[in-house]
């Protein structure tokens, strides 16, 4: 064992004993066809004989997402390549945190018990999870986690409005300005955003968004990035954004759809479609911060 392992018990400010010197993390993995993956903890483990998530202690150098996916691989043979993280929720116990990483499967997972920490692994329909003898802390967290299960944050960005919100010479090279915005948005996909920063409330939540950038005019030929979809407006940009919101809502009605624009008329139109709205300056502060 090295000092970076993170294995060990600590006491939080509430006087509870927890596993993980640097905190802990677990993976709440959803397969729409099978449910959520639960782990029946071996009798000898901390809170043994209860059901919870594959997970464990964070290492000193790890993010919560890295720890959760590593532990799921070590305990349930879930490959990192099969996991698409969508959000995370942090439970702060005072001096110790547990982070639940919510994710969906990119392709079918062949889970199996890999080590002695698991007595069983099972895909459980979300509506049946609460009937299991759950780990104490997981039972407390489950109702809030269930509300966000299999939901994603979709950011639809009005590129012309965002790049035009700052006088940095964008009018001389609108395509170049749109490309710079695309690249900054790509970074945001990987770092994630805090829920309150995009109007999603609870400070304990963060999201890895799916991003769609709508371009028009001289920026029409901007190419997409691997993780940023670029949509060229067929008619005008506003109509394309409204159409993008409608398609997103039709395809996945429970997702959080947020449009980034300062255009008042467009704001009204997308709000009527059930989307939230974020101002350009807020987005730019996020991608530049």
TrEMBL record:
Names of the cofactor(s): Mg(2+)
Stored InterPro entries: NUDIX_hydrolase-like_dom_sf, NUDIX_hydrolase_dom
Pfam families for the chain: NUDIX
PROSITE patterns named in the record: NUDIX (PS51462)
Hydrolase in keyword set: yes
Domain Nudix hydrolase: 20-146
Gene Ontology molecular function, alphabetical: hydrolase activity
Gene3D superfamilies (UniProt xref): Nucleoside Triphosphate Pyrophosphohydrolase
Keyword terms of this UniProt record: Hydrolase
Name the UniProt record assigns to this protein: 8-oxo-dGTP pyrophosphatase MutT (NUDIX family)
Organism name: Amycolatopsis endophytica
């Amino acid at each position: 064992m090295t000092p970076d392992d993170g294995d060990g018990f600590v006491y939080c400010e509430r006087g509870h004993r927890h596993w993980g010197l640097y905190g802990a993390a677990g993976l709440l993995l959803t397969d729409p066809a099978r449910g959520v993956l639960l782990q029946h903890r071996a009798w000898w483990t901390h809170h043994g004989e209860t059901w919870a998530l594959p997970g464990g202690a964070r290492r000193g150098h790890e993010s919560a997402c890295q720890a959760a996916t590593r532990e799921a691989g070590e305990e349930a043979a879930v490959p990192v390549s099969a996991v698409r993280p969508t959000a995370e929720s942090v439970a702060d116990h005072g001096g110790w945190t547990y982070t639940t990483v919510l994710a969906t499967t990119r392709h079918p997972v062949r889970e199996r018990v890999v080590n002695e920490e698991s007595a069983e692994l099972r895909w459980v329909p979300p509506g049946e999870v609460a009937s299991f003898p759950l780990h104490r802390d997981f039972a407390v967290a489950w109702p809030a986690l269930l509300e966000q299960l299999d939901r994603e944050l979709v950011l639809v960005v009005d590129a012309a409005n965002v790049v035009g919100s700052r006088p940095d010479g964008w009018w001389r090279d609108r395509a170049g300005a749109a490309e710079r915005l695309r690249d900054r948005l790509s970074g945001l996909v990987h770092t994630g955003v805090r829920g309150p920063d995009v109007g999603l409330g609870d400070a304990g939540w963060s999201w890895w968004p799916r991003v769609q950038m709508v371009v028009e005019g001289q920026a029409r030929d901007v190419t997409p990035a691997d993780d940023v979809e670029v949509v060229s407006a067929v008619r005008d940009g506003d109509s394309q954004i409204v159409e993008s919101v409608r398609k997103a809502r039709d395809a996945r009605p429970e997702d959080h759809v947020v449009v980034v624009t300062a255009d008042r008329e467009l704001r009204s139109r997308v709000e009527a479609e059930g989307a939230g709205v974020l101002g350009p300056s807020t987005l730019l502060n996020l991608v530049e911060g």
